[in-house]
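Final paragraph of the annual report: two paired records, presented back to back.
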Amino acid sequence: MSAELCTVDLPGGSAPTVRVFDRSASEPSDDGVSPAVLLAHPFLPVEQLSGLIELLGRERRVVAVDVTDLATAALERGDWSASAEAFRNLLPALEIERHHLAGVHFGGLLAQQIAVESLTQESSGLRSLTLISTHTGGDHEIPPHERTLDSLKTGLIAEAAPELRHQAILQLIHAGTLRRRPRVVDQLETLLAERRLSASEVERWWSAAGAFGVFESFPEIDLPVLVLHGEIDPVAPAENARVLERQIPGAERVQFNDSGHFFFAEDPGATYAALQTFLERVETYVP
């Protein structure tokens, strides 16, 4: 396996650098030209995606992009377009042409903007869109319960007491995972403690991130779209996935039962199976 965690300059973008985890295929296909998968994830430690990256990375290049700065800039402007342009500027820097784009939570909002804008680009290279644990933004978002937000705001900050951090983790991970895979919960607690978010950062993210989106343009999206969501997700309730499925033409939805907001960390094998089946179908389709 060849993998690298690095920072990449964004020429002309709204942020000077982004953190990128770049994993080349360990068992490339015979032709060696499977499109890369780009995972746009803000705030989320990349380690929570490691199981999915490991499985996807057997046959294709996987690039996980920490878009925290891009998303923060979008929140400050109230618009995703400049951040979408900055993300596209990343592709030539990484020598990526054909690719699949997957966005996790707030990264899903950025991915939606990129997909809509690809309609007006002659050769964007974008082959498909996957939306993971996300929502529409704007007035059509089904928001989390106020108790969930309060738990996240008090439990994710750097100075949070261990019991408050644990309660916040339980908003992200299904309770059954405590029994089935307690190591996932322990790892997430450690990672979030190391991330050291400030109270103002958490407040800004959770109060503003859903304030705007590109919902009205969804019917124009002309790409294969997969929506992946956990059944028990208090952070982005599962009804959000059904809204995306209804509004985007031809979108497919896969729901993971007995799973929460971080279902991809709880069961990376099932997540990989759903995503890989979708990608293979997209890549073998001949119009």
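The closing record of the year follows.
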Amino acid sequence: MNAPSKARLDGKARDLAGLVGEARAGQRRRPVCPSFLQGFQRIFAPGLCSAFIAGMLRMDGITGRILAASAIALGYHAGRFRLRGQQVFSRRDFLATGAVGALAMASSRFSRAEGKGSHNIGVQLYVLRDLLARDFDGTLAKVAAVGIRNVEFAGFYGRTAQQVRTSLSNAGLSASGAHCLLASMSDDVIGHMIDFCHEVGMPYMIAAVPSIKAAHSAGKAASSNPFEHIELEDWRWSAERFNLIGARVRDAGMRFAYHNHNIETQKYGDIVAFDEVLRLTDPAVVGIEFDIGNFIAGGGDPYPYLEKYPHRFELAHVKEWVTPFAPTITSTFPKYAAFGQGTTDWKKLLDALKKAGVKEIFIEQDGTATGDELGAVRQAYQFLRKVQVRS
């Protein structure tokens, strides 16, 4: 496995674990346990002091990270979550006043963008995680200086919702959403995450990976890491959970979406995992964030899906791979290339995304050869803007 790919997936699962603690940040703060990994300690909120969880976080690979996220989710119990921002309705006040109007307000930015006939180009902030951990506000300002106005979170770096909201406002940025949910999360944790994201003011909450059904996982020796082993029953269970989670997110005035990796391309007889997710999830409560690069990495062809399911794909991630590469459904991903230096027909892709009704696309160019992640984001953004101008 190449190191950047392994680190990327390890980090994403670790981030999901951290988000559970961050939902508690507005309630109480206490020092982080010394046994936590240094990176976890640096990025995420205090208050998750558990030697058991810390031990799982030390496990090699994404497996330990996903186990840690599940353990935190299943074991988490908290008191009443208190919203401290005076300029934002609490979720319960919001529910009392009605969801429809707030949902319309949350989606109005995307509607305006569609009216202009062009995509909003944002960035998934996971690619800038090291910079954000060192200088959260300064990094957001640098993102804005690139010309980007919309960002998607994958971790809040120990900040409360009001602090995140203030930092975004100071930088002139808007939060489009966050990778912050798992099918395996408890209902209490999901509720706290909904409160957190509603206070930040983002329209989308996103699940980045499927989960392994707990009872199903207990009966087999394989880990609960979906990149190592996932069965059709797990996909179906995750889809059912997404429908339930999506309804709760909708009732809070936001929109739930599922984000794919490469494992969605695997087949179970004649059934493709991604097809099953699309079949079983309810479009009324579950949108899809189509990660085009991930799907291609797994050997999938995104264009038939964009044509077959117009307006099902609401958000998209884009990236460029060094070619040629062997398609894979493991955590070993191809190497990243600078935008325009691979084989992607970007005009064709952007036109197809627009025709399919995709509201916003996010750059997710991670693990660059030079280590200059901000430079990679800048290059990708400038390249995509030029393609849009020519379209």
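DSSP finds 17 helices and ten strands in the chain. This concludes the annual technical report; the extension proposal builds directly on these records.
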